[in-house]
Amino acid sequence: MTATSAPEAALGVLPRADGSAKYSHAGYTVTASVNGPIEAQRRDEHAYEAHVDVIVRPAAGVGGTRERHLESILQSSLSQIILVKNFPRSLIQIVLQVEDSPENDYVNTKLVQASLNFAIMPALMQTAVLALLSAGVPMRATATATAVTIAQQDGAKRITVDPTPRDIETARSVHVLAFTSHDELLLAESEGDFTVKEWDDVYETAKAICCRSAPAKEGVAMVLDDEDASGPDMRQFLRSAAGAKVAADLHWK
Amino acid sequence: MTAPTINLPGPIFAKLSPHPFLLRNLTPAASNSSSSAAPTRTNGRASQEARPVHITASSLSHAHGSALVRVGDTTVICGVRGELLPVERIPQFRPLVDNNSQDEIGGTGTGTGGSGALRDYDLLVPNIELATGAAPQFLPGVPPTALAQTLSTRVYSLLHATGLVEAADLRCGTAPGRSARRVGRIRRTVGTRIRKWERGMRRRRRRRRAEVEGEERVVAYWVLYVDLLFLSFDGNPFDAAWAAVVAALRDTKLPAARWDPDRELVVCSRTEERKLNVRGLPVACSAAVFMEKEQSDAPGEGRNWILLDPDRLEETLCREMITVVVDCSDGETRIKSMEKQGGTVIGRELIRGYVGVAEGRWKEVQKAMG
């Protein structure tokens, strides 16, 4: 699978969960289930708001410290966009199962990698948001995320969107940014070696992907927009995925 | 009828309703502002004021390198211990293709060659323990908490991303410089030994031939176990932990190890030691965002304060956190890592300004490192 492939999503794939979604993009495939609001365990119970519980399961093996870190990042971000104050003393549980991740042909594959895998974060975030939409959990905004790398190539800087594992390995810096649908910066995780100026470029690139204003008119304008696009339009994608699900559900009318 | 006013001492007010307590301190009332006009935090600091850092290096006698870092009431001790890992024990070991490639490894590539070895062979093993009693929330007899696991992942990631230590410095090999001088002697002693034992020598002979040709062969790697223990926990664990890791690595002296061809062993010197080469001085700087309204649904409304180096009370009341790791040792400010999560207050402009704050913190920590 190439990195430039368009994202794909299906909503409501699991029959028993309150909401679920399957999402694949840039070689990653993630399935998420959302249950909630359900009764919280005593120790997780909060008097004023719902507890958001995120569980990340890797494609192989059991989760380790890296998954705990991903969970804590997702938990803090998602509890910002979910209206947690509406459901005091309850629990919203999000389980993210990684099904497929791209392999790096250049290195030995090792099962246990404690290092943070940046490229998987957008996929996890996007799947979680889709599953929350599918479960009908009230949210303040939706979120879109993307991963960007900066590589030094022949003396020039090259910005890559949706990097492959090989891109990440050769890149100088790796960045993950997520924006809410109000164009606010929700999450920014970067690693490597970069300057403020470079980060600004990354910010612009990521914002163009995550927060592109939807074309006002359908039809010609949209086709033109797609041609000069520098990357996938995540917000439009989220909208169309949810729209397709609603259309399918209301087909009987 | 006026409502009765209750005067509570500070600590009780803080326990009963921590959020209004902190808010009240940050917004001093206009009427009684004669003495303390400037808004301060509950700990008496200004919002952009960090706690002073105290670093004591070489505080452990049995570790190869160690450091004790105190940031206010957060105290963390870090010990680095090296252990030799012979290459025969590494599964999927790939010998270095050529010696010239070592030069380019040093650069920025996070994956190729040298740094790849760090990651592939797990040469850096950080572990973080939050001691029972360091803070009231750490209970005895429980598995590592999510906080401890998150911290250790962040330290591990950053150790690799910053390239603080390079695989080239952890290699023990048949030294290329000395081999030419030693080859003659090796040949003589080995010659008699080969006559003695005829079996199983083919592999060894091939090695000798390589040595005679002056090639460097890696025989072992140092594995650095970086253990961190929080003795006392009062917020902002990552900054303290990272400062401790850097200080301990800068303090690390590994014994001089050489390959003894006669015994086919790596032997370490009892007296001679060599300082570990640590590149750069990355410093972490964290802050939390305190919102005026605790209960609001839209986090955009209300005032907010960015509290540098939050303590434990502040951390429990803040959702949004930012950590920036900067390195100004080359004159230019390079950002090594940035983590911002849990809210939408900090946008692009604030991050730009925050890098300047982190530069100030870098100078403080650099001074403390000495």
Kindly list the characteristics that best describe this protein.
heterodimer; A: alpha+beta; Ribosomal Protein S5, domain 2; 6 helices; 9 strands; 31% helix; B: 370 residues; 11 helices; 12 strands
Walk me through what this model shows.
The complex is a heterodimer of chains A (253) and B (370). Chain A is α+β, with helices and mostly antiparallel strands and 253 residues long. Chain A has one domain: 2-Layer Sandwich (Ribosomal Protein S5, domain 2), CATH 3.30.230. In chain A, strands 1-2-3-5-4 form a 5-stranded mixed beta sheet. Chain A is globular. About 6% of the residues of chain A have low confidence. By secondary structure, chain B is of the alpha+beta class. Among the domains of chain B are: 180 residues, Ribosomal Protein S5, domain 2, CATH 3.30.230.70; 29 residues, no CATH class. Helices cover 34% and strands 27% of the residues of chain B. Chain B has 11 helices and 12 strands. In chain B, the strands form 3 sheets. In chain B, strands 1, 2, 3, 4, 5 and 6 form a 6-stranded mixed beta sheet that branches. The longest helix of chain B is centred in the last third of the chain and has 22 residues. Chain B is elongated. The relative contact order of chain B is 0.15. About 8% of the residues of chain B have low confidence. The interface between A and B is large, with 47 and 46 residues. Chain A: One of its GO terms (molecular function) is RNA binding. Chain A: Pfam families: RNase_PH (PF01138). Chain A: Belongs to the RNase PH family. Chain A: It is found in: Nucleus. Chain A: Keywords: Exosome, Nucleus, rRNA processing.
